[in-house]
Amino acid sequence: MTSAKPARIGIVTVSDRASQGIYEDKGGPAIREELGRIVASPWEAVARVIPDDREGIAATLIELADRERCDLIVTTGGTGPAPRDVTPEATEQVCEKMMPGFGELMRSVSLTVVPTAILSRQTAGIRGSSLIVNLPGKPSAIHDCLMAVFPAIPYCLDLVGAARIDTDPLVCKAFRPKS
C-alpha cells in the first residue's frame, strides 16, 4: 500500500517589519507549531514572510495555490482596520469562492477573549483546490482561531479536491460526514 502524498500547507506572515527583519516573525512559527499539534497526517510547510502590500499578498497567494500547489494556505497579519491591513482584500481578489463562515466563527471565538476582536476582518476563500484562511497576527489568537475553524478544514479540503488532512482527535476532532 502506497502512502498518500503529504499535504502542502502555505504559511504566510504579512508584516512590513518582519519582512524587513526589523521585527521577529512570531505569527508564522505559531501557525507551524499549532499545525504540528493538530495535523496527524504527513504535511510540509511552504513559508513566506512578505510586506503589507495588496498586490504582493495576492501574488504570493496565487504562487502558493497555483505553482506550489498548496492544499491549505494560512496567513497571519494584515486583518485589522489600519490603512496597511489589506490581507482580506488580497484574499478576496484571488479567490473564486469566499467562505465567510470562517471569519464569522473566528471573530465570535475571539470576542470571548477581547472586545477589540470586532475590529478583525479575517476571512477565507477557495482558489482552485486550495483553501486560504486569514488568521490574526497575535500567537494566542492564532491558537484560538485555528482551534475554532480547523474541525471544518479537512472536509472542506476533501470537497475542493485537495490532499487529505487528518487531525489528532485528542487535539482537534475533524468533522467528516459518515459515508
From TrEMBL:
GO terms for molecular function: molybdopterin adenylyltransferase activity. Residues 10-156 form the MoaB/Mog domain. It is an enzyme of class 2 (transferase). InterPro entries: MoaB/Mog-like_dom_sf, MoaB/Mog_dom, MoCF_biosynth_CS, MPT_Adenylyltrnsfr/MoaC-Rel. Pathway: Cofactor biosynthesis; molybdopterin biosynthesis. Its EC number is 2.7.7.75. Keywords: Molybdenum cofactor biosynthesis, Nucleotidyltransferase, Transferase. Catalyzes the adenylation of molybdopterin as part of the biosynthesis of the molybdenum-cofactor. PANTHER family: MOLYBDENUM COFACTOR BIOSYNTHESIS (PTHR43764), MOLYBDOPTERIN MOLYBDOTRANSFERASE (PTHR43764:SF1). This is Molybdopterin adenylyltransferase. It comes from Azospirillum formosense.
